Hints:
Elements: E1 20-21, H1 33-50, E2 55-57, H2 66-75, E3 83-88, H3 95-109, E4 114-119, H4 128-140, E5 144-150, H5 154-164, E6 168-174, H6 186-193, E7 196-200, H7 221-224, H8 231-236, H9 238-250, H10 255-263, E8 269-271, H11 278-286, H12 294-306, H13 315-324
Parallel strand pairs: 1-2, 2-3, 3-4, 4-5, 5-6, 6-7, 7-8
Helix pairs in contact: 1-2, 1-11, 3-4, 4-5, 9-10, 9-12
Bound molecules: NADP nicotinamide-adenine-dinucleotide phosphate (NAP).
Amino acid sequence: xxxxxxxxxxxxxxxxxxxxxxxxxxxxxxxxxxxxxxxxxxxxxxxxxxxxxxxxxxxxxxxxxxxxxxxxxxxxxxxxxxxxxxxxxxxxxxxxxxxxxxxxxxxxxxxxxxxxxxxxxxxxxxxxxxxxxxxxxxxxxxxxxxxxxxxxxxxxxxxxxxxxxxxxxxxxxxxxxxxxxxxxxxxxxxxxxxxxxxxxxxxxxxxxxxxxxxxxxxxxxxxxxxxxxxxxxxxxxxxxxxxxxxxxxxxxxxxxxxxxxxxxxxxxxxxxxxxxxxxxxxxxxxxxxxxxxxxxxxxxxxxxxxxxxxxxxxxxxxxxxxxxx
Length: 325
Ligand SMILES: NC(=O)c1ccc[n+]([C@@H]2O[C@H](COP(=O)([O-])OP(=O)(O)OC[C@H]3O[C@@H](n4cnc5c(N)ncnc54)[C@H](OP(=O)(O)O)[C@@H]3O)[C@@H](O)[C@H]2O)c1
């Protein structure tokens, strides 16, 4: 495993470049069922810890608390060797509510300290000064070590930091070969200031593994409602998947591993892929050791630029048709 070289206090646990996302744990929308929530999820976490993964990401809304519970139980005795990140959904984000919700998350996780407490998304009506008052109090009493945000623009990330009065370490955003918008301003900001971009959906929810196509579409709710998984868009992704396969062959790797190696190319980025099996987790962890050449990186970049999925209003009727076909 490789770790971020800067970012956190040397006395705290280092952050692994590949972490584990746990939205899948106990969440109905992924549809992985009882044996996944009861057994596989536990085995995935145990294997991740064995392989040196330290960054584990969850949220109070994943499975309405089930993800936090499953993760906390699976980490168990290894609490001190991991970097635990969870998120608050900012409904009514006044300080006492923020404090009470952090305590509830910590209880579900079975911990007395949240290494990273993130605001799941910017509240469009309430400025960050309100929520950051709660965050400051949580840091003061030691329940929260680092504060982070998620799905924030650069402007709002900076505003949050100003409101907190100290570092807002990270911004968790969608970043992959099919969504490169963080490259516009979030990555340059993080790289030049020692902040961190946490890349979610780094495999575009499995699309970049190359296993899905028009004749084999995933059936769960998350992906059935995603425009990326429209048959037309799966066709359009063919060229990008072919480039991933080409680079993968040169490294005796898989397309998913190359997609992850590409995401963590910037030293300010860590990725938190989810996994439906221990085997996927092992494969994702191994991606941390792949070094892409500049030519490979550029070839992937070019293929990503050529990928033009159908978006906007044209998507809705197609989604409905795809759902009932
Ligand atoms: N902050 C936010 O708003 C936000 C939003 C979304 C996600 N997240 C976080 O980011 C994490 C990851 O994002 P995500 O789950 O949306 O997408 P992702 O990591 O891109 O995709 C995960 C899915 O890809 C497939 N997969 C994983 N590893 C694979 C491999 N090696 N080979 C082939 N297929 C593989 C699995 O699905 P199948 O096996 O079923 O194909 C898995 O469930 C989440 O768990 C969550 O913690 C945060």
